[in-house]
Structures are given as C-alpha cells and as structure tokens.
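Repro:
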Amino acid sequence: MRVQNTAMQKTLAKVAQTLGINTNDPEQLLAALDRKVNEHTAETTGVPLDTLERLDRLTRDVERRDAETMAAEATRGFQRVKDEFKLDNKGLAAFAAQLRDAGMNPFATPMDLIKEYRAMNFDTLLTKAKDEAAAAAAKLQEHGQQHSTQPNTAAPAAAPGSAKSVTSVSGLEELMKELQ
C-alpha cells in the first residue's frame, strides 16, 4: 500500500508540474488539481466555475457528514452488542476482528451489528443459553429441595379426648351409636 501511495504521489506531482502547479504540499496539490479540473469542466460545459466549486464543497460536506453519521451509528451498534451480550472489551475486539475477516466494515456500510453478532456466534450463544438454563434449573431444584415441606406418610395419632374421625361407613355408624 505504501508503494502504491508513493507512486500515486509521484504521478500527481508530475501531472501538477505539467499543469503549471508548483507545490510539494499534498493538500495544496490536491486543491490545485481540483481547481484545474473544475476550470476545465467549466470551459467544456459552460457552467460557471464558482458553481462547480460550490457543488464540490457541498458534496464534500455531505460526504463528511455521512461518514460522521455512519461512524456514530457503528459506535452505537458496537455498544449495543457489548451491552446485550455482556461482552468485555476483548470480546468486542474479537467481534470486530470477525467482521474484518468477513470483509465487513460497519464504518463504511450500514449494518445491524446485533444481527451480525448473532449470525456469526450462533453456536456459542446457543451453548451459553443451554448452560445458563441448566444452571438455573439445577439452582431451582436445589432450592426446592432445601425449602419445601415433606408430606408425613404416617397416620396422625389421635390425641386423647379429641374428636374421632370417620373414615368409612361403618365408622360413621359406630359414631352415631356412641352419640345416642
């Protein structure tokens, strides 16, 4: 990449020299080249030079604003992923590396980062959800065993002088005879 940048810079310097532009500052060089291109376009199309320059300036402003908006959206998207999936900075960096490896750049192309995280990490999320559900079920079962009452399977002994209970028809008949 550096070799290509150096070659482009040399080529632009030669073009500028041919057009009569004498500067070594890259920003001034680009501004002068833009002006020459606008002058040529104004001559060939009949559109006034100041209109073309204003159009270029407005176009650059819109592109800059769009880039800032996209960067802010990407930053918010990464924060939502971090919050929703409880990632630390290392986990978030790993997700950014996954995006890069997949050729995806949320700072250049709008995308739903939550959706992308789910798609790229589905198996991990599924395993984590299963583990959490199993742990919650085990905790609930343990809590139930420690805090629930156990039914008494032995027949309760009747206290002396307490009322008799009737468990059958014959018992009812006996109770009726006693009361008479």
